[in-house]
Design brief:
Largest sheet: 5 strands, mixed
Number of strands: 7
Number of helices: 5
Low-confidence stretches: none
Distance between the termini: 15 Å
Mean pLDDT: 95
Helix content: 25-40%
Radius of gyration: 14 Å
């Protein structure tokens, strides 16, 4: 199944703050978790942290929940509109040197949908869940669904 991915992170190249996956299938449960951000950039402190709307959990817990969420899908495809979202999601499955969470397979696709602007289309800009919902809606609408 396709999942629409959005991530918030602490500035360019910064640490992961939150990650959301919104499944293509209508009514399927989304994934949304956040990590603590102890030294946010000023922009992140102003725009991201106030709209997290969830309790921060440890990174190891997020990684395990991420793997559990995708674990039953035989062929998960994560779709993102920004390369760093993919990089952050891929790094989430690395849990220690030479160790990763147990996922048989995972695929990523980067797209550049013309006319998509998460800040303009999201119900709550800079909230990974709402931005992923906006990406899903935009893509499915343009596919004629």
């Amino acid at each position: 199944m396709r999942y629409f991915l959005d991530v918030e992170f602490n500035g360019f190249g910064g640490d992961l703050i939150s990650l959301a996956l919104v499944p293509e299938e209508e009514g399927a449960a989304p994934f949304y978790e956040a990590l603590a951000c102890d030294q946010p950039t000023p922009w992140v402190a102003e725009h991201v942290l106030p709209v997290l709307n969830t309790i921060a959990i440890p990174r190891a817990v997020m990684a395990a929940r991420f793997a559990d969420y995708l674990g039953d899908d035989e062929d998960p495809l994560l779709i993102a509109d920004w390369p760093e979202d993919i990089a952050q999601a891929a790094m989430l499955i690395v849990v220690a040197p030479g160790r990763r969470v147990s996922l048989d397979r995972i695929a990523f696709r980067m797209i550049d949908p013309i006319g998509f602007d998460a800040a303009a289309l999201s119900k709550m800009p800079h909230n990974a869940y709402h931005d992923a919902v906006a990406l899903r809606a935009f893509i499915l609408e343009h596919e004629g669904r």
